[in-house]
Amino acid sequence: MTYAAQVKSTVANTNAIWVSTSCRVLGLYLKGGAANGTITFLDGGSTGGQLDSYPVSAGDTVYLLLPGVGIRYYTNVYVCVPSGAAAVIHFDPMGR
Q1: For 40-59, b where at least 16 C-beta lie within 10 A, e where not — what string?
Q2: Are 69 and 25 spatial neighbours (Cβ–Cβ below 8 Å)?
Q3: pLDDT truncated to tens, each residue of the chain (96 aa)?
Q4: Whole-angstrom Cα distance, residue 29 to residue 13?
Q5: Global pTM?
Q6: Across-strand partners of 71?
Q7: According to the model, what pLDDT value does residue 3 have?
Q8: 3-state SS, residue 49
Q9: Fewest 10 Å CB contacts: which of 47, 59, 62, 96?
């Protein structure tokens, strides 16, 4: 199976909207902070619906290639990041 896309990336290191349009998240690279925590992904800003969350251990890094065509975000991608943690978001802005 192939997926024709214009893949872009952004780094989320604070609680904010990191992709300001609808898209499909295709992969994630997660880095834990100084303490264990959870990186949470919402669709629709800070009060939007939670689409995914991943626990990360202190200092660990994890790469996730999401299956199929990824996870569809209809509004935007808001990321809640624990102190010192970060997430690299690989996404298709066309959101097919």
Answers
A1: bbbbbeeebeebeeeebeee
A2: no
A3: 566 668 999 999 999 999 999 999 999 999 999 999 999 999 999 999 999 999 999 999 999 999 888 999 999 999 999 999 999 999 999 865
A4: 12
A5: 0.89
A6: 25
A7: 63
A8: strand
A9: 47
Q: Which residue has the tokens 């200092």?
A: 59
- Rounded CA-CA distance 16/19 in Å is 9
CA atoms within 13 Å, Cβ hemisphere of 33: 16
Residue with tokens 């569809």: 72
Whole-angstrom Cα distance, residue 89 to residue 28?
5
Strand residue runs (E) in the chain: 8-12, 16-19, 23-31, 37-43, 49-56, 61-65, 71-73, 77-80, 86-92
pLDDT for the residue 69: 87
